[in-house]
Every structure is written in C-alpha cells, then in structure tokens.
Amino acid sequence: MFGLDADTLRNIKKVFATLPNLEKVILYGSRAKGNYKDGSDIDITLLGKQLTLKTVYALEEVLGELYLPYTFDISIFTQIDNDDLIKHILRVGKTFYLKENGKLKTESGAKNNSQLPKGWEVKKLGEVCEVQRGLTYSGKDAVDYSDIIVLRATNINLERSALDFSELKYLRNNFIIKDKYKLRKGSLLICFSSGSKNHLGKVALVDNNYNYAFGGFIGQINPKREVDSKYLFYSLISEQYKQYISELTDGVNINNLKIKDLQNFQIPTPSLPEQKRIITILDRTFKAIDQAKTNTEQNLKNAKELFESYLNRIFEEKGDDWEEKRLGEVCNIIGGGTPSKKNDEFYIGNIPWATVRDMKTDKIKDTEFKITSKAVLNSSTNIIPKGNVIIATRVGLGKICIIESNIAINQDLKGIIPKASKQLSVGFLFRWFKNISNDIINEGTGQRFRELN
User: Fold this and answer.
1) Which of 30, 168, 289, 328 has the most CB atoms less than 10 A away?
2) DSSP assignment of 41-89, as one string?
3) DSSP per-residue letters across 143-202
4) Is 296 helix (H, G, I), strand (E, B) or coil?
5) Euclidean distance between CA atoms 148 and 156, whole angstroms
6) For residue 385, what is the DSSP state?
C-alpha cells in the first residue's frame, strides 16, 4: 500500500501510536496519488490536539531510527498557511493512520451539571441561540460600489476576533436583501467555510447597528434571552471552543463547519446577573492585557530607536582603521526565483522558500511556503545557507533579515554571503544594511542599490 511493504507500514504506525496527542495522519503527494517512484518522499500532515514543531522534530527523530530509505516531509495541518497545499491535501489526501479505530473526539469538553456551581447549567448552543447561514449571490450581482454591502469571512479578523471593514463587497442596488440576512446588533458573525482550517469557526461580535448583510460562507448567531451576547462571545473565543472546532474533522474534508455541529457545542450557563459579572471581569482583564501589550510594544520601540541611534553614530564616526570597499568585493550576492505555480508538487516539500511576506522580524527560521528539491533544480531560486543575510531589492525594498536555517529565496530577495567571514561578520553586515535602509528606499535605483543587482 502506498508503495510501502506491510512491515514498513506497521513499524511507521507503531511510531505514530507513541504520540498521545496524535489522532490522525494524512498522506499526500505522489504516494497518495499513486504515481510514486521507489524512493519518493513520504509526505504526511498531522492532526491532533496541541501539536507543535517539537512534535514534528520528535517524530522525525524516532522515524529516523527506523533507517528507512525514504525522507519524511512532516507538517501540522492546522499550521499550514499555503492555500494551494491545503487544497492539494484536501483533493488527494489519504488516511495513513487513525487513532482509536479512527474515531476522533467531538465532545465539547464542558462539565456536566453536577460539576458546576449552584444555579449554573450546561446548555447546547442551539438551545440558547438561533443560527442563520448567510445569503448567496452570483458574480453578476457584484459591483464596484453601491449602497448594499455584504460582509464575508475576510471581514472577521482572526487575531482580534473583531469585525474588519477594510475589504467590503458591494452588490447591485436592486438586489433584494431579506431581513434574516441583515446584521443585528448584539449578534455574532461566524465563519462556516474557509480555505484554511485556522479560520473555521472564527467569530466577531456585532457591537453596533450596521446596515450590512452577510454572505453564505459566514453565518449569524442570535442569542436568546437567557444568554448575554458578550458572554456568548467570550465563550466562543475560549480555548475550549477552539479545541471543539479543531476536533470536528471528518476525513480530510475539514474546511466546512456544519450548523448542527455548532449547535451541539456545550456552554456552561449561569444566570444573567452572573453572566454580566463575568463579562465585567473579563472586560477588565482584556483591557489590562491590551494596555500591557501597548506598553511593551512602546518600550521595545523606544529601546530599538535608542540602539539604532547609537549604531548610526558608530557608522558616522568611522575610525582611522576603517576601510571602504564595494559590497561585491567582500560578498557574494545571490539572486532567487519562483518555481512554477502550475506544478502543485513543487510546493509540498520541506525546503523553506522566502518571500518579502516572511520578513516580519530581524531573524527568520521558517517560511510560509515550503518547496521540494525538484522545485529548486527546475527554477532560478537558490538556497542561502543559514547564518547569512537576505535583503529585499524590489518589493519591500530595504527589508533585511538574518536567516537561521537554510532558506531558498524568490526573485525579490538577494542573499548576501561574506567571502571571508574573518574579514566581515554577518552581524556587522546586518547592522550596516539597517543603517542605510532609508538611503536604499530613497535612492531606489541609485548607485548603492544597483550594486545588489
């Protein structure tokens, strides 16, 4: 099966069984499609509770002790950000391992009534709320601008669990919107369908009177009298809720949330006065967290500005023993490229492939996209050895990072590799680029920037 003999399969599954949080393993790539070769990689993605990169590293280490003539490419499905890879897995994925005879848990994890404080009850969401799926419309109904606005899944911000009005969808003015598809103050919007499991079940509180409708990939939860909308909101951003949504996987078709499954989520429900007391406590707590985060970010910004100012002074006050050289004299400048997007298999590997989107911090170790060695061989991308600098030379001009793993780069980036590490340290090089980043941006195609091309 999958090009592996029975003993090999048995030994691999024994390894999977040693991980208590691992509930399912999906095989994809050439072995799942049946067009594998003898030495083809074993591409797998993991499903389960509280899986981390440490899980992956531990699994790789134990599988390595089997001394198999294959390379394992392992990922955690809920942490995949590549929509094309997700679609590929959903399309061709095969169940490779299933814990407990394939039964994944779907219990909400709420306590039963006997375990709750006096006056509390465990109720299903369907008992205390009404759920309405959004309206559907065709492409011909959409226009560039009108008075009719329809919110979509992108209008629910995942990180903030709040409404985001940055990208709005407009329908023709004579499109009829029924009342049940209009936003209600005090309701919650929820994502029912998404290309990424991470967005499935995300919610936002409708905290004002908006004259908007909501589309078919999302829905509206309307609380009944016995539950406060803010209390419901806090219940649906809890870890208990997130775990419940994560466990509602059915095979590999996990990008849709059924209303009946949502309605089965169990919520510990106290009296309305107690709900309001809890809301007050949580509001105060989250406000304090936000303020602490703001203070921390400001302190970091101040420290960074002070440090940058100190470094700028060092570079401006060069000593007598400083010697100026062209970048090309002391460094090799390596370009990159993009493997063909038409070949799905190029993007199901384990080689990090960086774009400007990955350059969010001064150091990067992992990337949004992963490619195969075949992708490297069949494109103009190059792998930059870890410990070196990469810089953006087109999109995101002037961004600079030190890479902490071997990373391939696209055509918007350059790898800067010192020819002699004893003569030029990467740390110095990084700070020098940081010091002149504004010059690079301002000059655009000026002399200093041309040396990178």
Assistant:
1) 30
2) -EEEEEEESS--HHHHHHHHHHHHTT--SS-EEEEEGGG---HHHHHHH
3) ESS-SEEEE-GGGEETTTTEE--SS-EEE-TT----GGGB--TT-EEEE-B-SSGGGTT-
4) helix
5) 18
6) P
Q: List, in order, residues 6 or more apart from 68 with CB less than 8 Å away.
A: 8, 12
Question: Where does residue 48 rank: exposed (0-12), middle (13-18), buried (19+ CB within 10 A)?
Answer: buried
Q: Are 424 and 418 in contact (CB under 8 A)?
A: yes
pLDDT tens digits along 114-163: 556 778 899 999 999 999 999 999 889 999 999 999 999 989 999 889 99
Q: Across the chain, which distance is largest between two alpha carbons, in Å?
A: 80
Question: Which structure tokens are listed for 266?
Answer: 């169990």
pLDDT in tens, 375-416: 999 999 999 999 999 999 877 777 899 999 999 999 999 999
Identify the band that residue 262 occupies on the pLDDT scale cut at 50, 70 and 90: very high
Indicate the residue type of 205: L
User: E-strand spans in 60-202?
Assistant: 72-76, 94-98, 121-124, 129-133, 142-143, 148-151, 156-157, 162-163, 169-171, 188-191
Pairing of strands 407-409, 351-354: parallel
CA–CA gap between residue 413 and residue 358 (Å, rounded): 11
**Vertex 412 angle, CA 410 and 413, to 5°:** 75
3-state secondary structure of 127: helix
Which one, of 409, 396, 397, lies nearest residue 369 by Cα? 409
Q: Could you give the 3-state DSSP secondary structure of residue 446?
A: coil
- Name the average pLDDT for the chain: 83
Query: 188, 186, 183: which is closest to 150 by C-alpha?
Result: 183
Contact in structure between 399 and 416 (CB atoms under 8 Å): no
Cα–Cα distance measured from residue 351 to residue 71, given in angstroms and rounded to the nearest whole number: 12
Stretch (H or E) spanning 284: helix 272-316
Three-state secondary-structure class, residue 406: coil
53-64 helix and 6-17 helix, angle to the nearest 10 degrees: 140
Helix (H) / strand (E) containing 16 = helix 6-17
